[in-house]
Amino acid sequence: MNKTLAFITAAALALPLSALAQTSGTADKAATKAKPAAKAASKDKVVHVKGKQHLKASAVKAVEETTPVADDAVLTDNDIEVAKRVFTGKIQCELGADVTVTADEAKPGFFTVSTKGAKYRMHPVESRTGAIRLEDSRAGAMWLQLGNKSMLMNQKQGVRMADECQAAAQVAFAEEMKKNPPKALFEGADAPKK
User: Where is the signal peptide (predicted)?
Assistant: First the structure.
């Protein structure tokens, strides 16, 4: 356990430096962003709790804010087609909540999904059911868009952050389902023989 914490601490402190080393044309910009993280991390240092090493939350936050999110996901043509069907804008959810989905103009197929102070960078992930699924694998968040509703889930925490979210097209689809309900799975099948 101590080795794991030491590794995480070392990695968290090294991330701004590795990001700085990997950037070529924007080294000065990265250096100015990395300095506040280094100052915060050195000021907070490592806290020892019951013999275990922990970084203070402010140090971790400083590192995360200055470390660029990796857009290393390679989207297929299929993913780009799925992305074209994602509803964007401010989407109302149950209990007065809302989720804002914004397409990234500079990087087609990527989206920013935000609600209640949480912000995720998502991209399409293949779904076997035909539902539109966006994921931020780093944060463990998922946006699931069905025909009649959408939901935002945090899989790491095991919670639904927003449910029963409906864009205008989903409201219309839900109304149509009420008027013309889909056939039941076994409707029209022959009755079982006795």
Answer: 1-21
